[in-house]
Amino acid sequence: MSTQRILILGGDGYLGWPTAMALSQAGHRVAVVDNFAKRQWELELGIQPLFPIPTLHERVRAWQDVTGGEIELRVGDLTDYGFVEALVRDFKPDTIIHYGEQPSAPYSMIDARHAAYTQSNNVIGNLNVIFAIRDASPETHLVKLGTMGEYGTPNIDIEEGFLTVDHNGRSHTFLYPKTPGSMYHLSKVHDSHNIHFACRIWGLRATDLNQGVVYGVETDESGLDPRLATSFHYDEVFGTALNRFCVQAAIGHPLTVYGKGGQTRGYLNIRDTVQCISLAADNPAAPGEMRVFNQFTEQFSVLELAERVRVASKHVGWDAEIEHVDNPRIESEEHYYNARHTKLLDLGLEPRLLSDELIDTMLGKIHAHTDRIDRAALVQNVRWAPRVPELSLA
Amino acid sequence: MSTQRILILGGDGYLGWPTAMALSQAGHRVAVVDNFAKRQWELELGIQPLFPIPTLHERVRAWQDVTGGEIELRVGDLTDYGFVEALVRDFKPDTIIHYGEQPSAPYSMIDARHAAYTQSNNVIGNLNVIFAIRDASPETHLVKLGTMGEYGTPNIDIEEGFLTVDHNGRSHTFLYPKTPGSMYHLSKVHDSHNIHFACRIWGLRATDLNQGVVYGVETDESGLDPRLATSFHYDEVFGTALNRFCVQAAIGHPLTVYGKGGQTRGYLNIRDTVQCISLAADNPAAPGEMRVFNQFTEQFSVLELAERVRVASKHVGWDAEIEHVDNPRIESEEHYYNARHTKLLDLGLEPRLLSDELIDTMLGKIHAHTDRIDRAALVQNVRWAPRVPELSLA
Question: Phi and psi dihedrals of A344, rounded to 5?
Answer without folding.
Answer: -70, -35
